[in-house]
Amino acid sequence: MLKMAKTDLDAFVDALVKASYVVLGPIQEGEATKFGVVGGEEIKIPRLTTRPLKELFFPQDESLLSFDRSGTPDASVDTSGVLASDGISPRVALGVRPCDARALVLLDNVFASDDYRDPYYTLRREKTVIITFACPLPGVACFCESTGGGPYDETGSDILFVEVAGSYLVKAVSEKGKGLLQEVFPPCILHEADDEDIQAAAEARARGELPANAGVPIEAAAAILGHVDAFGDSAWEEVYKKCLGCAVCTYLCPTCHCFDIGDEVTGASGERIRNWDSCMFPLFTLHASGHNPRPSRKERFRQRVMHKFNYFVENNDCMACVGCGRCVENCPVNLDIRQVLTTFARRELA
Ligand code: SF4
Ligand code: SF4
User: Fold this and answer.
1) Interatomic CA distance for residues 110 and 198, integer angstroms
2) Which of 70, 160, 180, 289 has an alpha carbon 20 to 30 Å from 208's alpha carbon atom?
3) 254 or 136, which is more confident
């Protein structure tokens, strides 16, 4: 275990930049925070960025390829952008919270599985080292422990920082993280932690508490939602009612991953663009015939919840929620997924 003074965080970033890493950390964009390129200015680690970490790997929109048919009957196709060997530089994502790191492992089931490997996502994953900062003060909407994670969870991290008094204890979690620490950092920034530091970190971890309302009965809710009768449960008639269908919950969710692909063409050339999409939009399931199997907000809201706590579990053996609370904090009508889950948890299995 290593140790670093908190005041050396900027020097830590400078060392990464000097070693030719692109450092992505929390940055301010208007009223929101998100991950973006940092270096040369003071780093501030917020409790949780407004926008999720997933967009470093699965951007809101990206060009998959470009094409040109001018002067030839056959289109020439160029996929060299991101997929070129130098299309993505080695990167470090710094200041990640444990829920966002864990969400990446869930997304790997979709974009980096044995059945399908998305080359754009996997290239970014391979080129990125994840440095997670444990949460000393989880927020009022957090319920990560209910979903199997926690403020000190290491899942998905390559390196974990734990804040202790004026220092960070720095733990290499993966070989990738160990390699980075060995490659980049001089002993003047990182040095060996002593037994007292390790004891202090263990105590901080033991003291780490979640807010009183964080205990969401997810296992009980998932048992009901996984039941064969869940789809037709009468509770759906009520729980969705406040929903406006704005899709903020899905866009800010670190595990939501629906997308659409379209060609944007000007004259004989154009680009194939992948954009985030959302099951909360009516067009998402509209058939060319005009039929829509999810015609109202009720079916669309049910889809969001059932996908996270039933269908994803069936396909991947884990639920598609890490309890980050972003959907709770940012829903314009305070539709709280914790309350929806509690409603189901209280129902009897048929
Ligand atoms: S953020 Fe709230 S209102 Fe908007 S789609 Fe999600 S649940 Fe509905
Ligand atoms: S469903 Fe809500 S609490 Fe769960 S991971 Fe998504 S945004 Fe976070």
Assistant:
1) 37
2) 180
3) 254
